[in-house]
Design goal:
two-stranded antiparallel sheet, extended
Length: 84
């Protein structure tokens, strides 16, 4: 049932998702981003790349690095498309 009279409780929904263990990779990515922010590293326009991909069983403990989005996203398990 949609929320019509009261605002949607986004914070509560997020807490329930965490409790259920949904999106563990997303949480791992967020922790990596926050670690870079805490160190004071400017990551504007960059992606935080994991040395071992999260989809392949990696974690933040395996290491992370700052990388351009085009390099990071091209390498992360996507097939290369050839010319037609």
């Amino acid at each position: 049932m949609p929320y019509t009279k009261s605002p949607r409780p986004y914070k509560r929904e997020y807490q329930l998702q965490k409790r259920r263990g949904e999106n563990p990779e997303r949480a791992e990515r967020q922790r990596a981003r926050r670690a870079y922010d805490k160190k004071g590293i400017n990551r504007r326009g960059k992606d935080i790349s994991h040395n071992k991909m999260l989809s392949k069983g990696g974690s933040n403990k395996d290491g992370t690095r700052l990388e351009s989005p085009s390099k990071n996203r091209a390498r992360n398990g996507q097939k290369k498309k050839g010319k037609k």
